[in-house]
Design goal:
The complex is a heterodimer of chains A (about 900) and B (about 375).
Chain A (H helix, E strand, L loop, with lengths): L1 H15 L9 E9 H12 L3 E2 L9 E9 L1 H8 L5 E6 L2 E6 L21 H5 L17 E5 L11 E9 L10 E4 L4 E4 L5 E6 L2 E8 L6 E7 L3 E7 L26 E4 L1 H4 L11 H5 L5 E3 L7 E3 L7 E5 L2 E2 L4 E2 L4 E2 L6 E7 L13 E7 L8 E6 L3 E11 L3 E10 L2 H5 L4 H4 L2 E14 L3 E16 L3 E19 L2 E18 L7 E19 L4 E15 L2 E4 L9 E2 L2 E16 L4 E15 L2 E6 L10 E7 L8 E15 L2 E12 L1 E4 L10 E4 L7 E14 L4 E18 L15 E17 L4 E15 L15 E2 L6 E12 L2 E10 L3 E2 L2 E7 L2 E6 L5 E2 L3 E11 L8 E10 L7 E9 L2 E8 L5 E10 L6
Parallel strand pairs in A: 2-5, 6-12, 7-13, 17-22
Antiparallel strand pairs in A: 1-3, 4-5, 7-10, 8-9, 8-11, 11-12, 14-21, 15-16, 17-18, 19-20, 21-22, 23-24, 23-57, 24-25, 25-26, 26-27, 27-28, 28-29, 29-30, 30-31, 30-32, 31-34, 32-33, 34-35, 35-38, 36-37, 38-39, 39-42, 40-41, 42-43, 43-44, 44-45, 45-46, 45-47, 47-48, 48-53, 49-52, 50-51, 53-54, 54-57, ...
Chain B lengths: L1 H14 L3 E4 L12 E8 L3 E9 L1 E2 L6 E2 L4 E6 L4 E8 L2 E6 L9 E7 L5 E4 L2 E2 L7 E11 L5 E12 L7 E13 L4 E5 L3 E8 L4 E7 L4 E4 L7 E11 L9 E9 L2 H14 L17 E3 L7 E2 L3 E12 L13 E2 L15 E6 L3 E7 L1 H4 L17
Classes of the chains: A mainly beta (about 900), B mainly beta (about 375).
C-alpha cells in the first residue's frame, strides 16, 4: 500500500518540483554515516529530492570521499552493496528495490529493412503500465536508415513508411511528418503511408495527427529506407479540434475549401435525440448550410442539395438520412475519416457540382477483438471488430437499429399509435494487408420504414458494396483499383383515398470500376491519374393501383440507362518552399442509352402531351446522346510566411444526375433523374481565394475565403408541376442559371482546455429561369433568390474540459431567414377570397437562432477494465426558441391569418450511454 | 399533400415538440393593385354573371369594384353577348340554352374606362358527368374547437364517362334550419304587454349560404372517369348547422384542363399547410391578358363550364352547439336596465301565467336576428 502511495506521490510531486539540479558536481566527504543523513547532505547541496522508504535502507552506512562527483554517482556508490536502484524522475531521484523506474523509452536503432519495435510491446509491460493511463510525452528515439558508407550528400533519398494507431493497429490517413531542419512535410495517404524526398543527414522528425500524441524522432539518414510509426491516442485530449488541416499541421497548407471532421469529437457535440450526426456537424463549418431541422439536405456554397456527392468507402449514397432526415444514415462509430471538398475538388472526383463528402470507415482491429456501442432514446448500435489473421487481416461489423415505436404507442391517438417508424443500418468490412498490397471489402445497408396508420407507408433503402485494392509497386508508385456497386430504392403506398390508392417502387443503381495510379516523380512533384467508368440503371418504377377499389391508372414512369466515363490527371507540384500548385484535368463523357421512346414536340409550344408531334425509338444499348465534359481543377497555394498562406482555386465541374424535388426540403419520395435527351447535364464554374493564418500565441487559426460560382442548366420545377404521375419529366422541369457568391470566415483555437471555433458565412444564391416563351419562365424570367439563399450564417462551438473526465460543449447557430413568397394582396373570385403572392422568394422568414449544450462524463480511466462507458447529456435548443421552419397563410372569411411552423420549439433533453470493451483509449 | 400529412403526424409522434403559432409578417403594403375578373359561363340558361374589381392590398379594407366597363362574351362563331352593369362592378347578360353549347369555345372581352382592353383565351365548354350519389358519414377531424372534432363528412361519387370532362370543380351551397329559443309572449316598452297566443313567426328560420371553399378533382390519371367518396365539405357538431336539419347542394362543374389547373393552383395557394415539405406558392396565371398594357397582370380565369347539380338532406343531429341567446336577469332596478332602443324587450314567460324578470335579447326570440329568413325553402322536406 505504501508503495502504491509512493507511486501516487511520484505522479504528482514532479509537477511542483521542477527546479532541480542533478548535473552539477558536488563534494561529498562522509564516513560511516547513516544513509538517511547522507541523503540529507545531498539534498542540501543540490536542491534535489530523493525518494525512498526507510525500511529499504535500514542499517545502511555510507562512506564517500570525493570532491567532484555527480549526485547520481554518489547515490549509486552509496547503494553499491544493495539491490536498490537509482532512477531519475523529472530531475529528482527515486530509489526502488530491485526495480528501475522507467521514465522514458530506451533509444534504439532500426535497420532500414526492419520495422521498429512496436510501442504496444512496451505498453504491455505490466511494471510500466501500472494503474492509470496518462498522456505520454513524445519520446525522442533515434532511427537510422541505411549505412554510413552508403551516404551521399548530393542525391536525394526516399524516406517512407506507415503510420499506425499503436493500440488498434489501424493506419492513420492524414497523419503528417514534418522535418524541422528542412521545414518540409508530407501527409500520409488513405492507407497511412507517407513518403518524403530528403538528402542524407541528421534530422528531427515530428509525426502528428489530431487526437494522437506527437511523436518525435532523431533521424540518421544515410540512404532510402522505411519505418513504421505507431502513435498513441492523446488520452486526455477530449478538447480536440474538429476542423483541421489535412496536408500538414498548419491550416496554411491544406487545400482551399477542404474541411475534415474528426469523428471522435462528434460524440461530444450536443445532438438531437443523442444521435451523433456527422452531417449535422458539418453544417457548423463555413459555407455549409442545412436545408432545415429534420431535413437531409445540405447547401454548399450556394448549391442545390443534389449537388453534393456522398461516398462511404467509394460507395455513392443517394439518401443520407434515416427517418426523413432526423437521423444520419451513417453510424458514426465506424467512421475513421471524413473529408469535405467544397473548394478545390481533385480531378479524381466528378459528377457533382458543389461538394464531395468522402467518408472512410475503420478497417477493424488487427491486434485483438473488441466491441463498442451506444444506447440513445431512439436507437442502439453495436460495433464488433477483430483480427482474422493477426497484423494482416481484420474484420469490422456494425449494426444499428431503432426502437422508436414505443414513443408512438405512448401517444393517445389511434392514428399515431397505429403507426410505425423504424430504421436500421448494417455494415461489414474485411481488410487484408500485406507489405505491398491492401485489400478491403466493404458492404453497407440501411433501411427505413414508416407507416402512418392505414394512410401511407414509406420505405427506402441504400445498399452498396466496394472492393478496394491497393498495390505499391515501389515507394513512389501506387495503384488503386476499385469496383463499386450501389442501389437506392424506395416504396410508397398511398391509401388515403380508395379510388386513388397506389403503390410506387423506385430504384437507381450504379456500378463503377476505377483504376488510379499515384506516382512521386520527385520529392516535389507528384502525379495522380486514372480512369473511371460508371453504368447507371434507373427504374423510375410504375405507379400501380393499390387495393381492389383503386381506379388509379398504372403509369410506367420509365427506365433509364446511361454510361459515364472519365479520364483524369492531377499534377501536384511544389515549385519552391512557398509556392505549390495542384492542376487537374478531367475529361468526362456521359451518354444516356436506350431502350427508350423519346417524344418530340412542336416548336415554340409548351412541352405538353397535346403538343407531341412525333417520337423517336432507341434500341436497347443505343446511345441517345453524347455529352462531353472537359473539366479543369486548379489550386495554388502560396505560403506568405511561416504562419500564413494565400490560396486560389478554380473548379469546373459537371453533373449528370439530379433530384426531382419540388418541395423546399428533400421529400422522402424524391427521385433521382439522369440527364437525358432534353435535360442537359448541369455545369458549374467556381473560383475561390483565401487567406489563411495561424497565430502561434494562443494556438489560433484563422481563414477568410471568398468564392464566386456560376451554374448553367440547374433544374427547377415549373410552377405547380408534379412528377409522380408523369413519365415525361421534360414537361415538368425547366433549366436555368444559378449564381452564387460569398465569403467565409473562420477562427478556431485548439490544444487548450477551452477551445472551439467561430465561423461566419456570407453568401447569396440567385436563380434565373428565362426564356422567350412565357411557359418556359419562372418568376417571369426575373432573377429570384434560391430557396436556400441565406446571406448570414454564424456558427460557434465551444468545448471546455472541466476535469480530465468531464467536458462541456456548447454550440450556437444563427441564420438569416430563408426566402419566402409572401401574400401581398387579396382578391375575390366567385364570392371567395384568394391570395395574391409576391414575386418568388421576395421576402424572408424570421431568422433562426439555436444554442445547444452537452456534458460528457467519461468513466474512470483505469487501464485494466473490461468495459469503458461514458454518458452524454445534451439539451438541444436550450432556450426553447420557436425557430420558424416555414410560414404559411390561411384565409378565413376574407381575413388573412399567418402562421409560423416550428419543428423543435422546446428544449430537448437526451441522455446517451456509450460503451466499449477495454479502457478509455481502446478502439 | 401526402407528405404534408405524414410530416404533420411524424413531427409530434417523434418529438412531441413541433408547434404552429400565429405570426405577423413584415409585408410591403405598396404593391400595385391588379384588375380581377371573376365569372364563368355555364350551360345553364339564364343570366351569366361577371364581376370586375381590383385586388386589395393587405392593409386595405375597402373592396373596390371596377365600374363603367364594356364587357362582352364571344363564342367561337363570332356571336357577341353584351353585358350590362346591374350593380357596381357586377355585369350580366341573359343567354338562352341555344347559345350555351357544349363543345363551343367562349371568351370574354373587357374595355376599362382607363382605355385598357382585356381579353381571355377561348375556353371550350366541356360536357360534365351527371352529379349523383352524394353521401355523408360521421367522422372526426383535427379541429380548432377541440383536439378532435366530430362532424359529418360530405362526399360525392363521380360516375363520368369518356365523353365527360375529367376535370371537376365543386361549388357547394348549404341550407340549414335554425330556431329562436323562445316564442314572443311578453314584452316591455314603457309597460309590459302580453301577446296571446304567443307569436311563433320568428321561431323557425332557414339560412342558405355558399360554402366558402372550392374543391377540385382530376380523374386524368384514373382508369375510369370515376371516383368513390370524394370528400368535400365537413360540418362539425359544434356548428348550429346540423341541429335541426341540413341540406347541401352540390354544383358539379366540368372544366377544361386549363381551367382546372388554374383553380387547382389558386386552391393550393389558399390552403397552405404547416409542413416539413411545403411547396412554394405557385404562380397562378389566369387566361386573361391586358393587351393594351401587357405588363399589367390580370387576375382571374374566364371559363366555360357545363354544370350538374344534386342535393342531399341530413336530419337533425346531436350537436354540441353554444346558444346564441343569453337571457339577462334584470336586477333590482328592473326595467330601467332596458333602454328605449331595445324596445320592445321581450321577457321570459312564466308558465304560471305571468313573466319572469328576465330579458330575452333579440337572438332569443328572433331566429333571423343575425342571419337567415323565415321562408321555408321549397326543397325542405318537412
Amino acid at each position: 500500500m505504501k508503495t502504491l502511495l509512493l507511486y501516487f506521490q511520484l505522479l504528482w510531486l514532479p509537477l511542483f518540483l521542477t527546479n532541480t539540479d542533478s548535473n552539477e558536481y558536488i563534494s561529498i566527504q562522509v564516513d560511516k554515516i547513516p544513509f538517511s543523513d547522507f541523503v540529507k547532505i545531498v539534498e542540501n547541496k543540490t536542491n534535489l529530492k530523493i525518494y525512498y522508504q526507510e525500511t529499504w535502507i535500514k542499517g545502511l552506512e555510507v562512506t564517500i570521499h570525493d570532491d567532484h562527483i555527480l549526485p547520481i554517482a554518489a547515490l549509486k556508490k552509496a547503494l553499491k552493496q544493495t539491490k536498490i536502484t537509482v532512477s531519475e524522475w523529472n530531475g529528482n531521484f527515486v530509489l526502488l528495490p530491485s526495480a528501475k523506474l522507467i521514465s522514458s523509452l530506451p533509444p534504439y536503432k532500426i535497420k532500414n529493412t526492419e520495422p521498429i519495435p512496436k510501442i504496444s510491446d512496451i505498453k504491455n509491460n505490466k511494471k510500466e503500465s501500472r494503474v492509470y493511463l496518462k498522456g505520454r510525452k513524445a519520446d525522442l528515439q533515434v532511427i537510422t536508415l541505411g549505412k554510413r558508407e552508403q551516404a551521399s550528400n548530393t542525391r536525394f533519398v526516399t524516406l517512407s513508411g506507415t503510420v499506425n494507431d499503436a493500440i488498434s493497429g489501424e493506419n492513420i490517413p492524414g497523419a503528417t511528418i514534418y522535418i524541422e531542419e528542412t521545414k518540409k512535410g508530407a501527409a500520409a495517404d488513405s492507407e497511412g503511408r507517407f513518403s518524403l524526398q530528403i538528402k542524407p543527414g541528421k534530422y528531427t522528425a515530428r509525426f502528428n495527427f489530431l487526437g494522437m500524441e506527437e511523436k518525435k524522432f532523431h533521424l540518421n539518414i544515410y540512404s532510402s529506407g522505411s519505418f513504421n510509426v505507431e502513435m498513441d491516442q492523446a488520452n486526455f485530449e477530449m478538447d480536440e479540434v474538429i476542423v483541421y488541416g489535412d496536408k500538414q499541421m498548419s491550416i496554411r497548407a491544406k487545400d482551399p475549401g477542404l474541411e475534415k471532421i474528426a469523428v471522435k469529437s462528434i460524440r461530444e457535440i450536443p445532438m438531437m435525440m443523442g444521435e451523433p450526426d456527422i452531417l449535422k456537424v458539418s453544417e457548423m463549418l463555413p459555407g455549409i448550410v442545412s436545408v432545415g431541422e429534420g431535413s437531409t439536405g445540405l447547401n454548399v456554397r450556394g448549391g442545390n442539395a443534389d449537388q453534393n456527392a456522398f461516398y462511404i468507402n467509394n460507395i455513392p449514397i443517394y439518401n443520407t438520412s434515416h427517418l426523413f432526415g432526423f437521423f444520419p444514415a451513417f453510424n458514426s462509430e465506424i467512421i475513421k475519416d471524413f473529408s469535405i471538398y467544397k473548394g478545390y475538388i481533385p480531378a479524381s472526383y466528378g459528377g457533382r457540382l458543389s461538394s464531395v463528402f468522402d467518408i472512410t470507415t475503420k478497417t477493424g482491429n488487427k491486434e485483438h477483438f473488441t466491441a463498442r456501442g451506444g444506447i440513445s432514446p431512439v436507437s442502439a448500435n453495436l460495433v464488433f471488430e477483430g483480427p482474422i489473421k493477426k497484423d494482416k487481416a481484420s474484420f469490422l461489423i456494425s449494426g444499428r437499429k431503432s426502437y422508436s415505436d414505443w414513443l408512438l404507442a405512448k401517444i393517445n391517438d389511434p392514428t399515431i399509435s397505429a403507426s410505425s417508424a423504424k430504421f436500421s443500418d448494417f455494415s461489414a468490412s474485411l481488410n487484408y494487408d500485406t507489405k505491398s498490397s491492401q485489400l478491403n471489402l466493404f458492404t453497407y445497408y440501411s433501411s427505413d420504414y414508416f407507416r402512418l396508420a392505414d394512410l401511407n407507408t414509406y420505405s427506402y433503402f441504400n445498399i452498396g458494396g466496394a472492393l478496394n485494392y491497393g498495390h505499391n509497386f515501389s515507394e513512389k508508385k501506387r495503384l488503386n483499383i476499385s469496383a463499386v456497386g450501389s442501389i437506392y430504392g424506395f416504396n410508397t403506398i398511398d391509401t388515403q383515398f380508395e379510388s386513388t390508392a397506389y403503390e410506387h417502387n423506385y430504384q437507381i443503381s450504379d456500378y463503377e470500376v476505377r483504376a488510379e495510379m499515384e506516382q512521386d516523380l520527385t520529392d516535389k512533384h507528384n502525379i495522380v491519374y486514372g480512369a473511371t467508368l460508371i453504368y447507371y440503371n434507373l427504374d423510375r418504377g410504375s405507379v400501380n393501383p393499390y387495393g381492389s377499389y383503386s381506379l388509379k391508372i398504372q403509369t410506367d414512369l420509365g427506365k433509364e440507362q446511361a454510361v459515364e466515363g472519365a479520364l483524369y490527371f492531377t499534377d501536384n507540384y511544389k515549385i519552391n518552399q512557398r509556392l505549390s500548385t495542384n492542376i487537374g484535368l478531367r475529361f468526362g463523357a456521359f451518354a444516356p442509352m436506350g431502350e427508350k421512346t423519346i417524344y418530340t414536340y412542336f416548336d415554340n409550344l409548351p412541352k405538353e402531351d397535346k403538343y407531341i408531334n412525333d417520337s423517336i425509338q432507341y434500341a436497347a444499348g443505343e446511345i441517345i446522346k453524347w455529352y462531353f465534359a472537359p473539366d479543369i481543377r486548379a489550386a495554388i497555394n502560396y505560403e506568405t510566411d511561416l504562419n500564413g498562406s494565400l490560396k486560389i482555386s478554380y473548379n469546373r465541374t459537371h453533373q449528370n444526375i439530379f433530384m426531382l424535388n419540388n418541395t423546399i426540403a428533400i421529400a422522402p419520395n424524391t427521385q433521382w433523374k439522369l440527364a437525358d435527351y432534353y435535360l442537359k447535364p448541369a455545369q458549374s464554374q467556381q473560383i475561390s481565394a483565401g487567406i489563411f493564418r495561424t497565430i502561434p500565441k494562443g494556438d489560433w487559426e484563422t481563414s477568410l475565403e471568398i468564392f464566386l460560382k456560376t451554374t448553367k442548366y440547374t433544374t427547377e420545377f415549373r410552377d405547380g408541376a408534379d412528377f409522380i404521375d408523369n413519365p415525361n419529366v421534360e414537361q415538368s422541369v425547366l433549366q436555368g442559371d444559378q449564381d452564387a457568391y460569398g465569403f467565409e470566415f473562420l477562427i478556431k483555437r485548439s490544444g487548450h482546455r477551452l477551445n472551439g471555433w467561430l465561423a461566419y458565412t456570407f453568401s447569396r444564391a440567385m436563380v434565373r429561369v428565362a426564356s422567350e416563351n412565357s411557359w418556359e419562365q419562372i418568376n417571369q424570367g426575373e432573377l429570384f433568390p434560391a430557396n436556400f439563399d441565406i446571406p448570414h450564417v454564424v456558427n460557434a462551438m465551444i468545448n471546455y474540459k472541466i476535469r480530465k473526465r468531464i467536458s462541456i460543449s456548447s454550440t450556437l447557430t444563427y441564420q438569416s431567414g430563408k426566402p419566402v413568397t409572401y401574400p401581398i394582396a387579396t382578391y375575390t373570385l366567385e364570392e371567395l377570397n384568394y391570395i395574391d403572392y409576391s414575386s418568388r422568394n421576395e421576402y424572408r422568414i424570421p431568422h433562426y437562432f439555436r444554442t445547444d449544450i452537452s456534458l460528457k462524463i467519461e468513466g474512470n480511466l483505469r487501464k485494466d477494465k473490461l468495459i469503458h462507458s461514458s454518458l452524454l447529456l445534451s439539451i438541444y435548443n436550450l432556450t426553447g426558441r420557436d425557430n420558424p421552419y416555414s410560414v404559411y397563410f390561411d384565409q378565413v372569411n376574407g381575413k388573412l391569418w399567418s402562421y409560423q411552423y416550428s419543428i423543435i420549439g422546446v428544449p430537448l433533453f437526451t441522455a446517451t450511454w456509450l460503451f466499449k470493451l477495454g479502457n478509455y483509449a481502446a478502439e | 399533400m401526402l407528405q404534408n400529412k405524414i410530416i404533420l403526424y411524424l413531427i409530434p409522434l417523434v418529438f412531441l415538440s413541433a408547434c404552429i403559432k400565429p405570426f405577423t409578417p413584415d409585408i410591403d403594403g405598396n404593391a400595385a393593385t391588379k384588375i380581377v375578373v371573376s365569372g364563368k359561363l355555364t350551360d345553364k340558361e339564364g343570366y351569366q354573371y361577371v364581376t370586375l374589381s381590383k385586388s386589395m392590398l393587405l392593409n386595405e379594407t375597402e373592396y373596390e369594384s371596377l365600374r363603367n366597363c364594356s364587357v362582352y362574351i364571344w363564342d367561337e362563331d363570332g356571336n357577341r353577348f353584351s353585358m350590362t352593369e346591374y350593380s357596381s362592378g357586377s355585369y350580366r347578360v341573359w343567354m338562352d340554352k341555344a347559345d350555351l353549347k357544349v363543345g363551343t369555345a367562349y371568351h370574354i372581352q373587357i374595355f376599362t374606362p382607363e382605355g385598357d382592353e382585356l381579353i381571355s383565351e377561348p375556353d371550350i365548354m366541356p360536357q360534365v358527368a351527371k352529379a349523383n350519389y352524394p353521401s355523408f358519414q360521421l367522422d372526426s377531424i383535427y379541429g380548432v374547437y377541440d383536439k378532435y372534432t366530430k362532424g359529418l363528412q360530405f362526399s360525392i361519387d363521380i360516375e363520368g364517362n369518356e365523353l365527360d370532362s375529367k376535370y371537376y370543380l365543386f361549388e357547394l351551397e348549404a341550407t340549414y334550419e335554425h330556431h329562436a329559443l323562445y316564442d314572443r309572449e311578453w314584452y316591455y316598452d314603457y309597460g309590459v304587454h302580453h301577446i296571446f297566443p304567443p307569436d311563433s313567426s320568428l321561431f323557425f328560420c332557414w339560412t342558405t349560404e355558399k360554402v366558402p371553399e372550392i374543391f377540385t378533382l382530376s380523374t386524368e390519371n384514373l382508369a375510369e372517369n370515376k371516383f368513390k367518396h370524394f370528400n368535400l365539405h365537413f360540418v362539425t357538431y359544434h356548428q348550429e348547422h346540423l341541429k335541426f336539419g341540413y341540406s347541401l347542394l352540390f354544383r358539379q362543374l366540368g372544366l377544361s384542363r386549363e381551367a382546372y389547373l388554374y383553380w387547382e393552383s389558386v386552391r393550393l395557394n389558399n390552403n397552405q399547410n404547416a409542413s416539413l415539405y411545403s411547396k412554394q406558392p405557385v404562380d397562378t396565371q389566369g387566361n386573361i391578358k391586358n393587351i393594351t398594357n401587357p405588363n399589367k397582370e390580370v387576375l382571374g380565369f374566364f371559363s366555360a363550364s357545363a354544370i350538374s347539380e344534386t342535393r342531399i338532406f341530413v336530419e337533425a343531429q346531436p350537436t354540441e352547439t353554444y346558444p346564441l341567446c343569453i337571457p339577462i336577469a334584470l336586477d333590482r332596478i328592473g326595467f330601467r336596465n332596458i333602454g328605449p332602443s331595445d324596445y320592445p324587450a321581450f321577457l321570459m314567460n312564466d308558465p304560471q301565467g305571468s313573466y319572469f324578470m328576465i330579458w330575452l335579447p333579440d337572438p332569443c326570440v328572433n331566429c333571423a336576428s343575425t342571419h337567415g329568413t323565415t321562408t321555408k325553402p321549397n326543397f325542405w322536406p318537412y
